[in-house]
Design a protein that fits this description.
Layout (H helix, E strand, L loop, with lengths): L8 H9 L1 H4 L4 H11 L20 E2 L14 E4 L7 E3 L8 E3 L2 E3 L7 E3 L6 E8 L14 E5 L3 E5 L24 E2 L7 E9 L2 E2 L5 E3 L2 E6 L2 E8 L21 E2 L7 E9 L1
Parallel strand pairs: 1-10
Antiparallel strand pairs: 2-17, 3-6, 4-5, 5-17, 6-16, 7-11, 7-17, 8-9, 8-16, 11-14, 12-13, 14-15
Bound molecules: magnesium ion.
Length: 266
């Protein structure tokens, strides 16, 4: 790669930071960006570089869709127990189950489904705490990781300021939602998710990326959005080959609740 096609890391990061150009980046440029980013150890990267603060998705009012599971769905949480879930190392899930919901118990860690999936339709309802204790990424933060890697953000974004590609409905640190449909804290939200898993060649090379379509409270917020790779807090995502994997819910230290979780293989 010559000098011009491989600019230095800072230049690339500035380009990455500019929201208007983000969606216009040609694939070759993105590949150069990723290759360049690889030259710096991820732990040394500044996490602010991949925050996009503008534009802000428009705030709208909406209502959650509490759709019962269709007959061919697998019920992952019916309000009674967490038998479909474990912590990441296989221990029984220790999140709190009461009143038809399960709630993050701070410090117990993420949970994931015992079952594994590829392409799915997933319905999930979530609620940020009614009591506001912090702001931005510290307010009602959780997340839904498709295939244990690709985070659809859960956050109290009702009246809280954070980077747009980190608010509720964002593919975290990648794509902001089309609108902000977040319910008031203490009220339920619904996500209806269509996930297309990435495809890899036998040699482990990416053939097609993952895609996400998401309805938040019945409103389209991600429309067949390309996923750039696994969610990263620092630096750019890079795909690494994997097979079927679970649905993972994040313990980010806030008592976020979930209910009525069902899934269909596609
Ligand atoms: Mg999160």
């Amino acid at each position: 790669m010559d000098e011009e096609a491989n600019p230095d890391y800072d230049t690339l990061m500035k380009q990455f930071h500019a929201p208007a150009s983000l969606f216009a980046l040609p694939m070759a440029w993105l590949l150069a960006l990723a290759a360049s980013a690889q030259q710096m150890p991820r732990e040394n990267m500044d996490p602010r570089v991949t925050e996009l603060w503008e534009p802000k998705p428009k705030k709208i009012t909406s209502a959650p869709v509490a759709q019962p599971a269709p007959s061919d769905a697998v019920m992952l949480f019916d309000g009674k127990n967490v038998s479909e879930w474990t912590h990441l190392k296989g221990e029984p899930a220790r999140w709190d189950v009461r009143d038809g919901a399960m709630t993050v118990v701070k410090g117990t860690g993420d949970i994931k489904t015992k079952r594994t999936f590829a392409d799915v339709q997933l319905h999930i309802e979530w609620r940020a705490p009614a009591v506001i204790e912090s702001e931005g990424q510290g307010r009602g933060n959780s997340g839904i990781f498709l295939q244990e890697r690709y985070e659809l953000q859960v956050l109290d974004s009702y009246e809280s300021v954070t980077y747009a590609n980190g608010q509720a409905g964002a593919i975290y640190k990648q794509s902001m939602p089309l609108v902000n449909a977040t319910s008031k804290p203490g009220e339920w939200n619904s996500y209806d998710i269509v996930f297309t898993a990435p495809r890899f060649s036998e040699q482990g090379r990416l053939i097609t990326p993952a895609y996400l379509t998401v309805l938040h409270n019945g409103v389209v917020i991600q429309n067949h959005t390309q996923v750039w790779g696994p969610t990263e807090y620092k630096g750019l995502p890079l795909y690494v080959e994997h097979g079927k994997a679970g649905i993972q819910l994040q313990d980010h230290g806030n008592p976020v609740s979930y209910r009525n979780i069902w899934i269909r293989d596609l």
